[in-house]
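Quick one, C-alpha cells below. Sequence please?
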C-alpha cells in the first residue's frame, strides 16, 4: 500500500470510529505528515575494528545521520543533547562513543543515569549484547546486593544507576569511588526531559555536585544527554548541567505517513459558560471525566 492509500484508509477509519452527534463533526482538526525516508551514512572512519565487527553482527552497517553527528560531537569533546523521535536509535548515539572510548582507553570509565531502575537494566542488557570484554558494565541501585557493591566498585568501568542512587550511594562516599571518578570520561543522562519541575531542580543540583567532585579528582567528563523531541533541548540540558551543550535535533530515522486528529467531545451542558463536554472514561473509572 502506497502512502496516499494509507492516509485515505486512516481517514476512513477515523470517520467510522468517531461518529458525529446531531450532525456535528467530532474530528475538529486533521493533519497529515508525509512519510520520511531514512538518511544514512557509512560507518565513521577510524571506528575501532572490533566495534565495527560487533555492529555488523548486530546487523548495523550504516548509521542514521543524527547518530553520526552525535558521535562527531563527542569525539571533539563537546557536550551534546540528542532530541529525536521515538525509536530513532538514540541509544546508539551514546553507546558508540562510550564503547569507542573504552576500546581506545582501557583506564576510562563511564556513568549512565536513567530516571528509572528498569531503564538502566535495559541499557545494561543492550551493552552486554555487544559481547565486548572491554566493557565491564554493572547496574548499581537500591536492588544491588550489598555483597556485590564492593566488587562492582573495584571492577566495573561502566556504572548504570539513577540520580537518587548517585545522590545517596555514590557522591557521599566519593573517596571510595575516587579511582572511578578520576578516570570518568563520559556521563550519559538518558530521558533528560523527565527532569523538570522539582525533580529537575533535584537532578540539576546532583549533576553540579557530580561535576564538582569530578573536578576534585581532576576529571572533566563529556556529558551526553538523550531527550524526547522537546522545543528547547539545548536550553534544558544547559539548565540541568550548567554547561554549553550542542543540539542534535535533525532526525535521520525513517517514519511512515502519520495522521494527527483532534477529537472534540460532545456538549453535555450547552447552557454552561464554557460548555461542559463529555470525556471518555479511563480504564477502571466508574464515571466519565
Amino acid at each position: 500500500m502506497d502512502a496516499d492509500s494509507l492516509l485515505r484508509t486512516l481517514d476512513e477509519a477515523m470517520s467510522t470510529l468517531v461518529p458525529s452527534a446531531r450532525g456535528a463533526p467530532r474530528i475538529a482538526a486533521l493533519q497529515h505528515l508525509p512519510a520520511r525516508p531514512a538518511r544514512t551514512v557509512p560507518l565513521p572512519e577510524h571506528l575501532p575494528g572490533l566495534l565495527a565487527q560487533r555492529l555488523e553482527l548486530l546487523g548495523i552497517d550504516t548509521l542514521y545521520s543524527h547518530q553520526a553527528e552525535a558521535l562527531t560531537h563527542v569525539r571533539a569533546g563537546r557536550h551534546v543533547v540528542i532530541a529525536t523521535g521515538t525509536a530513532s536509535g538514540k541509544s546508539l548515539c551514546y553507546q558508540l562513543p562510550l564503547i569507542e572510548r573504552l576500546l581506545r582507553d582501557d583506564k576510562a570509565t563511564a556513568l549512565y543515569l536513567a530516571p528509572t531502575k528498569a531503564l538502566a537494566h535495559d541499557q545494561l542488557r543492550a551493552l552486554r549484547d555487544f559481547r565486548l570484554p572491554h566493557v565491564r558494565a554493572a547496574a548499581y541501585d537500591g536492588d544491588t546486593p550489598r555483597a556485590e557493591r564492593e566488587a562492582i566498585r573495584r571492577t566495573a568501568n561502566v556504572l548504570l544507576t539513577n540520580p537518587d542512587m548517585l545522590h545517596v550511594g555514590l557522591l557521599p562516599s566519593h573517596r571510595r569511588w575516587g579511582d572511578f571518578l578520576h578516570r570518568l570520561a563520559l556521563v550519559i543522562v538518558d530521558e533528560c526531559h523527565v527532569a523538570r519541575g522539582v525533580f529537575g531542580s533535584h537532578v540539576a543540583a546532583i549533576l553540579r555536585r557530580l561535576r564538582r567532585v569530578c573536578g576534585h579528582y581532576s576529571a572533566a567528563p563529556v556529558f551526553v544527554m538523550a531527550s524526547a523531541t522537546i522545543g528547547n533541548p539545548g536550553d534544558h540540558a544547559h539548565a540541568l548541567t550548567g554547561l554549553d551543550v550542542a543540539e542534535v535535533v535533525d532526525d535521520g530515522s525513517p517514519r511512515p505517513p502519520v495522521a494527527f486528529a483532534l477529537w472534540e467531545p460532545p456538549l453535555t451542558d450547552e447552557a454552561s459558560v464554557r460548555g461542559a463536554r463529555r470525556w471518555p472514561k479511563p480504564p477502571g473509572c466508574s464515571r466519565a471525566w
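Residues 37 and 254 are 5 Å apart (CA to CA). DSSP finds ten helices and 13 strands in the chain.
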